[in-house]
Amino acid sequence: MTIHLEQTDLDTRDAYPTRFADGERVIERSDPVLWSSWSEDAPITREQAEAYDRDGYLVMKNVFSANEVRALIDASAELRRSGEELRREDVVTEPGSDAVRTIFRLDEHSEMFRRLAHDTRLAGVARFLLGDEVYIHQSRLNYKPGFTGKEFYWHSDFETWHAEDGMPRMRAVSASVLLTDNDALNGPLMLMPGSQRTFIGCRGKTPEHNHETSLRKQEIGVPSHDALFTLAERHGIDHASGPAGTLIFFDSNTMHGSNGNITPFPRSNAFFVFNAISNRLEAPFAAPAPRPAFLANRGTPQPITPVEGSLA
User: Fold this and answer.
1) For residue 257, what are the β-bridge partners?
2) Closest alpha carbon to 103 in 85, 120, 117
3) Which class would CATH give 31-274?
């Protein structure tokens, strides 16, 4: 497959059209990846800033102390035990079972994870990467159990956030804190370094209430095999591994996914999406109605003030 890049007009309402009836459209990114210029007072090193800009993601180890990691793991276990007490819409189970797959609105269900979302090691770095004040667009706790954990298919988060939530530009970043050891075998996050500079407008009209099925298995808003092959051939595939406590930032348009987990060892992570205040949501660009609030914060965004200090 030959990719033909198109440059969209920055003044048009929709710079990244998607969900076409007649095929895919591949568009060259018109937004920066790194929105700030590095200086000595930046919260990450120059090398880390350059790596994020080049690859579309950054893996940081030894960010949290052993006590902090243990406190986060304990808070995660407590949330999973109390899953039946949470709002039904906030809990997604594995396909074909009642095993908890995801708990949304993580920062509302746990004071520990709310504190984590406001920590300068997350929110402070997100403000630097996005060059703006930030707020939480979405938060969740992801579980991938041993033996039966299902895969997450290749996708760009921005494609869904743009099409179904109304996020205008690629000015958002995800922060994932690993709560279990992740290696090459237990279904770690896989990414295509450099893919953040190419947007794939996908084929397929968005059905009503698409989120009710896409949270279990995404079928609309995913690239074709040909497009994925071309991206993988051009950029290669990497995986983000590390011990519990590893922190991963990745750009909203970085192509990513993960394999199923058939090892005995579970995989879990706390996941926060930081969006720039200037990038607040509009009407969906390719869906009949916005997704519910647990998936996309549509209220008046309140900027986060990063907090210093230990979590535990």
Assistant:
1) 190
2) 85
3) mainly beta
